[in-house]
Design brief:
The chain is of the alpha+beta class. Helices cover about 25% and strands about 35% of the residues. Strands 1, 2, 3, 4, 5 and 6 form a 6-stranded antiparallel sheet that branches.
Length: about 150
């Protein structure tokens, strides 16, 4: 697919994913973050959240992963260039999150055949509450040759 696949303004809604207790424990073990608000229910009940919540980066990573399920990225991705992410509300055990992802911008890079694409994410839970908002910039292969020549 050419660069036009990343037409600014184009939007996709990702599949949903329910965040479970196992996800939180696996993430904690993977990154070494055993902060009590994530893994200790007795402690977490004493917090303003009233119970355990998912790690912010767990939900962020899940949102990005769900974008890959749409077919927009796949083998075209060369690398991640930047993330800018805001955490608006907690993601609780049992919440189902999905993202509305919009192409904010797409341009040819200085390397022929590559482009830089900025995606804008609104991550929402099952109640449509905005839980995270972010921007992800990626370097992608192919389809930007015509844009370089224009």
């Amino acid at each position: 697919m050419g660069g036009q696949h990343f037409e600014p303004g184009r939007t996709v809604v990702t599949p949903g994913r329910t965040i479970g207790e196992g996800d939180i424990h696996l993430f904690a073990g993977l990154v070494g973050d055993f902060t009590p608000v994530h893994v200790d229910e007795s402690f977490a009940r004493t917090t303003p959240f009233g119970g355990r919540i998912a790690h912010g980066p767990l939900a962020m990573s899940t949102a990005i992963g769900m974008l890959t399920q749409t077919g927009w990225l796949g083998e075209r991705v060369v690398g991640l260039l930047n993330l800018n992410w805001d955490f608006k509300a907690p993601v609780r055990i049992g919440d189902t999150i999905r993202s509305r992802v919009r192409v904010e911008s797409a341009r040819a890079s200085s390397t022929p055949g590559r482009g830089v694409v900025v995606f804008d994410f609104d991550v929402v839970n099952q109640a449509e509450t905005l839980v995270q908002h972010g921007r992800m910039t990626v370097l992608v292969n192919s389809g930007f040759e015509a844009e370089r020549q224009a």
